[in-house]
Amino acid sequence: MPDENLVPPTEEDLSAFGRALREWGPILVGAILVAFVVRMFIAQAYNIPSGSMLPTLQKHDRVVVNRLSYQFSDISRGEVIVFARPPNQPSDADDLIKRVIALPGETIRFRDGNVYVDELRVEETYISRQDSTRPLNPRGIPGCDQEQPAADMCVVPQGAIFVLGDNRTDSQDSRAFGPVEIDTVVGRAFVRVWPVSRIDWL
User: Fold this and answer.
1) pLDDT tens for residues 69-83?
2) pTM for the full model?
3) Which of 69, 98, 128, 174 does the annotation list as catalytic?
4) Domain spans, the chain
């Protein structure tokens, strides 16, 4: 027995729906296309999977990455970037997030727990513990522009950068996998958007 409370749509209802679809359909399609373009070419949100960037970024924070940052400007020391995982770095993540410490052609050294670039000590107010930077690869840092590999020193090749996590005692970074090719950089992380209580510029 049919339910008397169910009334089939009238021609007027269908025509109103058709009008609404004609009016709002292009707007919805346009919004989806804009969101797709923004995500693919302009900005993208990333979830922080580990504590390697503590205290700057905590596990499960979300950041927005500007994918166009380096189309118009060069990478600068101190910036937090996202880059494709190096092939010699085992990880479940396709992309990694670290801080730029040394630029192409510079020499980075680790001495007494501190970082020196071209013999000048880098002041690092953002790291979790001062004097905590130690070599990671006893066989020497791979991919450096020098004849003899060293665990505590690297000449950064042209077209590459040296990156470190802020949590130096718990970060796999260029000390382990070597300098990162600039061509693999996805973009610059410029703002933390989650959690809401910690929204801030990076």
Assistant:
1) 898 889 999 999 999
2) 0.80
3) 98
4) 10-44, 48-201
